[in-house]
Amino acid sequence: MADVAWIESVLSGAVQAGTVYLLASLGEVYAERSGILNLGLEGMMILGVAVSFIFTNALGHGAALLVTMLVGGLIALILAFMAVSLRLNQIVVGLALTLFGLGLSGFITSAEIRKGILLSLNPNLSEAALVTQQAPKLPNIAIPVLSDIPLIGEPLFNQNILVYLSYILAIVMWFVLFRTRFGLSLRSVGENPAMADAMGVNVYLMRYIATVIGGMLGALAGAYLFIGYQPFWQEGMTQGRGFISLALVILATWSPLRAILGAYLFGGVEVLQFRLQLLGVGAQTPQFLLMLPYLVTIATLTLLSFEGVKKRIGVPAALATPYSRE
Amino acid sequence: MTLEKRLTRRKFLGVSTGAAAGAVAAGAIIGGIAGYFAGQSTAPTREVTRTVTTTVAGPAQTVTKTVEKPVTEKVKAGYVYVGPVGDFGWTYAHDQGRKWADARQANVESTYIESVPEAEAAGAIETLLAEGYELIITTSFGYMDATAEMAEKNPEKYFVHISGYRSGAAGNAPENMSAAFAEFYQLYYLNGLAAGAVTKTGVVGYVAAHPIPEVIRHINAFVLGANYAYKKRTGKNIKAYVNWLFSWFDPGKTRTAAVSLIEEKNADVLAFTEDSPTTLQVAEEYTTQKGKQVWSFSHYSDMTQYGPNSHLTGQIVNWGPLYLEFYRMVATGTWQSVDIWTRIGDYLPWRWRLPVEKSTAGKPEGTVYLAPLNPAIPSEWQLEIKRRYEEMKELLFEPFSPEGNLDQPIRDQAGEVRIGPGERADHDMLWTMDWFVEYIESELPKV
User: Fold this and answer.
1) Predicted pLDDT of residue B52
2) Domains of chain B listed by start with CATH number
3) Rounded CA gap, B303 and B280, in Å?
4) Would you tell me which of A77, A232, B320, B406 could form a disulfide with B97, CB atoms 3.0–4.6 Å apart?
5) Domain residue ranges in chain A
6) pLDDT higher than threshold 70 for residue A7
7) A113–B contact, CB cutoff 8 A
8) Confidence class of residue B40 from pLDDT cuts 50, 70 and 90?
9) A120 touching chain B per CB within 8 A
10) What residues of B are in contact with residue A128 (Cβ under 8 Å)?
11) How many Cα atoms occupy the beta-carbon half-sphere of B122 within 13 Å?
């Protein structure tokens, strides 16, 4: 069965399913590089789904994407304030924000509230638009020439705009992180905040910026899941994808470029588990494939427990540690 | 002697859902602990009394005596839901059923607690009991043992469990516990007839939640129906493939599973057991954007709007009549433990089969009914679907019988005859089904 069309179709599915993880983990790479562990990612993602659902129906895709990122950034500000300024336990605050996001997303999408928000944004909406649980999906845009490349052209270059944005973000964010002064400061803040502070880097500001970027991209991942992938709103529809993205950051060893590979690996497993079921491979235990990405993640974690590896890869040493000047 | 009835609305208490929903958000901020209680929303309470005026004509004078008394005992019903009421699937359907029943019974006060994890069922039931709710309705299979336990501890209260097998009637729970379920397999068979009537590729797919008997019998019924129609049309057997999600609800994964069935196996009709219209949306995408007609169905509620060009028909549930039945038992003090499994024809005002041209197939009735039939289904198959639907009202036709399989015995994948000539499936066979019919190519996962 492994003909060209089959490979193209599987790769295309892997890219589509993987983009959710890619967007979320890119932001999380920045947050963790600065020393902030954002366990609220799942909550920011589900809020991103809810906000993009409402705003797409009221004002269209463009407004929805902007507002979604704004909301994600605002929620991340709460995390930054609590974790950076108040120096609270990041794990507790993060988990609380996940619960908050799940609750708030359910609240703003409950029938009456949603109707109110939609009408206040756009009084001309039809009755059907007020009650529907779906929204128009982003169209695929085939890039001329590139999309004609055999095997990878169709999967990589016939996707929607958010997928293209994720490519650009991954490259730009890698460049900024490893090739600019700003990136060096960001990494130093997550590595040794006291030293960075002594060198004149504003530790608090850097951590705020990185956390907010993380929240914005987390919410954008939610918006992609909805208008870019499967446009049906249901409470809790992210189904743990925020937490999977956290695991992916480890697998990618905190590098935006490696996150691309990791994301498509996770996406690929999501696609292959169903393809292989139909091909009769491991049909009696289809759950087996599901655990593979986590096995790889655990293996990565184990590898990272060796000091030498840790140093070479650059695990943020001050991850989840609050910084105080005194 | 005259009897005059007058209904007065005494009280109308309404807590706005907005306030309750606000509490949900607040609860989540605190840390989710309070979510339990915050998720509760109190339905409007009505207390209806009847004024009975009895006029007795005596020899010399007329004595009029007016007695004001409640029609029935007040019913306080508390529901425990496994998902959020806004899920547009399982829990949404139960909540619609609650509202339906509330609107048809005087003197009912009902409430619910949503998104209760199965391990916390006992706590949720205790909360409802402490607030004075005496009829407890739990709507997830995983709540079964907790419900039976609480029924044991509270013999003066009433308990109804949905989708399980423990009840006083069945002898494995106290007498104050009943079991109830609205069963879809007959409707899945009719969906199958529609699928077999329209498929061009001769391949149908099924996106399935978990490999449990309920889902397995729905898959089998669907495939038997599809084979019946397809074989009658073309003389060839249908081919059916199943993709397991191992989840009741995940729109993202469901998309991938549905796409795989279409692209990997060229399936052009997809049935599903998952709590969202995702499969139908994927079918619509292929039909309208990718130039390949793919069909799918409604599940629980009418989902036509999610795939207007791909919606064939489907299975719809109304839990209301079941809940009303229990309200009435409690209200009139006539409780009896029952194990109800409703099918086509149950809770209909007119339970006889109708002539095909007058068939109600595709219209709301009873507890389980067919979604609107797409005119794209060839007319002879529309008639066949209607005929079988009407026959099933009187249980004259059983899908799991040779009659449902073109008079051939029903065999499993190993070729073994499961239902032979003159036989039809009984309750226990349907309830414990753990084999696939021969037309399914996919293997059944071991669990």
Assistant:
1) 45
2) 1-71 (no CATH), 72-182+318-347 (3.40.50.2300), 185-313+400-431 (3.40.50.2300)
3) 8
4) B320
5) 18-139+153-240
6) yes
7) yes
8) very low
9) no
10) 305
11) 10
